[in-house]
Design a protein that fits this description.
By secondary structure, this protein is mainly alpha-helical. The protein contains 12 helices and 2 strands. It is 69% helix and 2% strand. Helix 1 crosses helix 2, helix 1 crosses helix 5 and helix 10 runs parallel beside helix 12. The model has no long low-confidence stretch (mean pLDDT 85).
Length: 331
């Protein structure tokens, strides 16, 4: 998994060196990945359609051999072989998509951590710098590496910086020192040294006039209670919660389109309904809690999947129409 994370991160950085815009880089990268796995998705769709067409025959076998499980399994395997169907053929693209999804999550979280450390160290050593020149904006989002919500600041806060591994601090500071942005690199020997640095350097600077003004909450909107959570809406918030909402909407549409393929199989349809709620929760949680870059990847991935499903629908309908016409004329 680490190899895949590093590979994706390397590809993203390579694309950025050409495109020079991280949001556009993520969009292009997402489309490239989807195009590469499209043949697998097409094969999965064919497999799903064949399995749906076999449902009547499978049901007859289940009724006939309901008291002999061994015989039923044998006859089912014979049916699959005769019809040229792999019952697991539709699973591979889903597995690959999930692996890529989690690899992208870790890759973009790693990259976000690097960017947040870079932003903090640059501002700390150059307090006269306008903070807005250090972040990566995208449409309504001020900083692509922070969550797209009004409950997050556009500059990295102390909690965000504490979550970063000490090796990232060392690596980023070394790069900044080599570029002359900061006077010297950090050399943390371990997490304890990083924690001491955050307590003695980061916390006081974040509380200073230079930084604290950008972390101020809106008047009367600090420590709001929603069920068990305490939230704050910031005056210079990072986003409007649009990407998490769009991710939910596109996730539902995508899952609904996928379900339509499996209506002939009640068992699959039932599991798909469960998957809708699971993926809906996942999309909201990850896109609201983590950086907007990952939320952007999720949304673009869903939109592409919706367009792909619609194109597949048209393609298979045209194929069915051609087959029906050929049968009528006796070809």
């Amino acid at each position: 998994m680490n190899f895949l994370n590093d590979l994706l991160l390397t590809v993203i950085k390579g694309l950025y060196s050409v495109i020079n815009n991280y949001a556009l880089t993520i969009i292009v990268f997402t489309i490239l990945i989807k195009v590469l796995v499209m043949p697998l998705n097409l094969g999965s769709r064919r497999s799903t359609m064949k399995m749906s067409a076999l449902q009547p025959k499978m049901q007859r076998l289940q009724d006939k051999y309901k008291d002999d499980q061994e015989k039923l399994n044998q006859k089912m395997q014979e049916l699959y072989k005769e019809e040229g169907v792999n019952p697991l053929g539709g699973c591979l693209p889903m597995i690959i998509s999930m692996v890529i999804l989690f690899a992208m999550f870790y890759a973009l979280r790693t990259f976000a951590n690097e960017q947040l450390v870079r932003q903090f160290l640059t501002l700390y050593h150059n307090p006269e710098t306008d903070p807005k020149t250090l972040v990566e904006p995208f449409l309504w989002i001020k900083n692509l590496w922070m969550p797209d919500t009004p409950f997050a600041t556009f500059l990295p806060d102390v909690n965000s910086l504490r979550m970063v591994d000490y090796t990232v601090w060392n690596q980023v500071s070394a790069n900044l020192a080599a570029a002359g942005t900061i006077p010297e690199a950090l050399g943390f020997a371990g997490r304890d040294a990083m924690t001491a640095y955050i307590d003695s350097v980061v916390v006081p600077f974040v509380s200073s006039d230079v930084y604290a003004a950008h972390l101020a909450p809106m008047a009367g909107l600090s420590n709001l209670r929603i069920l068990f959570w305490s939230i704050t809406i910031y005056a210079e918030h990072n986003g409007l919660f649009l990407l998490p909402l769009i991710s939910m909407g596109t996730q539902v549409v995508m899952q609904k389109l996928t379900m339509q393929q499996q209506m002939a199989n009640p068992q699959q349809a039932g599991s798909q309904k469960t998957m809708i709620y699971v993926m809906l929760f996942m999309s909201l949680y990850f896109c609201a809690q983590y950086n907007a870059a990952f939320a952007l990847y999720w949304v673009v991935s869903n939109i592409y999947a919706i367009i792909e499903q619609l194109c597949f629908n048209r393609y298979f309908k045209s194929q069915e129409a051609k087959a029906a016409t050929a049968e009528e004329v006796g070809i």
